[in-house]
Amino acid sequence: MEFKKTENDGIVIYELSGRLDTQSAPDFQAVLDEGFEKDENKIVLDCKNLEYMSSAGLRTILYAKKCIDKNETDKADEISAQKGFLKLINVSDEILEVFEMTGFSEFLSINGSSND
User: Fold this and answer.
1) pTM
2) pLDDT by residue (tens digit) across 35-46?
3) Cys staple from 68: which of 58, 81, 84, 104, with CB 3.0 to 4.6 Å?
4) CATH pick for 2-115 out of 1.10.260.40, 3.30.750.24, 3.40.50.720, 3.40.50.620
């Protein structure tokens, strides 16, 4: 898997391509961890070129969501704390089906490729 990281107005965008699977998920999680250490909690995953996602990829997405949610809970008392989020955009029908079958679509913000 390859990913390109860009930042725009405090929002970190990862353009994912290839396969998010058992081999690539740990590397992507390490990159996310680096961002969380820098308080990067507004994340968009652009899945336009993502071909496949395994259960390891789903775990990485769930991990990111939990880290962002925990960060928000920890900062709940700070008046100036800005809400973090995790959004997935340009998700193919095949990968969207995986999110729906696993119930991830119930708690993730997902925009399919046909919703551009």
Assistant:
1) 0.87
2) 999 999 999 999
3) 84
4) 3.30.750.24
